[in-house]
Amino acid sequence: MLRNLFSRPAERANGNISIAEILKGCEAGRMQSVGYMQVIPLLSDINDERIASPDEAEVSTQNYGSLIFNNLADRVVIVPLHAGYVVKQAAQNHAMAHAAVVQSAASKTYDTAMCIQQSQGGFIAADKYKLMILPFALREKALGLRKEQAFDKLWKSISEFNERMGAQASGHLEFFLEQFKSELDQFVAEFESVPRQVGAIVLIDGQVVGIERAPSQTYWLSIWPALIRECYGSLAIEYRRSMGDKAELSQIRIPLAGSVNSLEDIERLLREAEAREEELARNTVRSLIDDAFVREVEEEVEGFTLETLSHDQLCGQIVHEQGNVLYASLIVAERWKHRSPWRAAQPFTV
């Protein structure tokens, strides 16, 4: 267990905030690892049920590029960052470019939403629908477009993503979702939530790609299947495709070391390898938990503040109440992929 990962005090300067502060009150559980993906569960005894889960709200559309949330709960609803809705009716699927805080027992329309089904017409009837989170490859782009009112603003990125994944190149996200349905479903089965879990640190091949936190265990259970399936599952598939025919896992998998003469030897060597893999992940997380984000306030609802965060490595949004973070969704920035080899490079010597 990585229980002391977030225990050291974090410095605060000029109103900035760090991962250590965002994950205050959490401890890290035992790492789960399947294929190229690793998940470190975030556990907490803080269980703030004042925030309703997104499935407490009815969702509908009346105009293309707008999403309406009708909060049926007597508590505020946090709509998670990049929530999407793929419906079976003849209606244009939509997604949010940002998170949202919807007032208790109220309805709110967001005109900064996006159509994610290019040539389909029709509006979504008010109802409760299964939550989808945008694929990882689309999230940073969507976040950058969060203030733009244009229903087609993500079509080009969806088309490029589909083509890269071998699906039909158009602004229909469902083409990717249908082609990889079985693979995406498998991630939900492989990474089940554990007791006391309110979040997760997600790694691909040993590198942090996302940090997620929820206000309660109930809220977490309502969003985790969408996060692990469409968001991080899609990234694992994309990474696997990029590796081509390479069978080995280049970063995180450690070969067994030692002679094997019995089943007990195998079990011991597996435990040792698992511990070394977990320590590698632990060191990766430690390297970034004190880095500070720049903050931008987006909205305030009933004492809860939604902010956008930017950082060399991560970007995303949080919801806090007087500095105490209840919700966070942070993903690795594209620019970091190009900078990280330079950060790890050793000084020149002769």
Mind explaining what this structure looks like?
With 350 residues, the protein is α+β, with helices and mostly antiparallel strands. The protein has one domain. The chain contains 8 helices and 20 strands. The chain is globular, with a radius of gyration of 21 Å. It starts with 16 loop residues before the first strand and ends in a 6-residue tail after the last helix. About 3% of the residues have low confidence.
Key features of this structure:
20 strands; alpha+beta; 4-stranded antiparallel sheet; 10-stranded antiparallel sheet
Write the layout of secondary structure elements.
Layout: E1 17-18, H1 19-22, E2 27-28, E3 32-34, E4 37-43, E5 51-52, E6 57-60, E7 67-71, E8 76-79, E9 83-85, E10 94-95, E11 100-102, E12 107-110, E13 114-115, E14 132-133, H2 136-144, H3 155-164, H4 173-179, H5 181-190, E15 197-204, E16 207-213, H6 217-243, H7 263-286, E17 292-301, E18 304-310, E19 314-321, E20 324-332, H8 334-344
Parallel strand pairs: 5-8
Antiparallel strand pairs: 1-17, 2-4, 3-4, 4-15, 6-7, 7-12, 8-11, 9-10, 9-14, 10-13, 15-16, 16-20, 17-18, 18-19, 19-20
Helix pairs in contact: 5-6
Helix content: 25-40%
- Class from helix and strand fractions: alpha+beta
**Major sheet, described briefly?**
10 strands, antiparallel
State the separation between the terminal residues, measured CA to CA: 42 Å
Number of domains: 1
- Would you identify the regions where 5 or more consecutive residues have pLDDT less than 50? 6-14
- The fraction of residues in strands falls at 25-35%
Q: State mean pLDDT (0 to 100 scale).
A: 86
Series of H and E elements = EHEEEEEEEEEEEEEHHHHEEHHEEEEH
Please compute the radius of gyration using only Cα atoms.
21 Å
Number of distinct beta strands = 20
- How many helices? The count is 8
- Overall morphology: globular
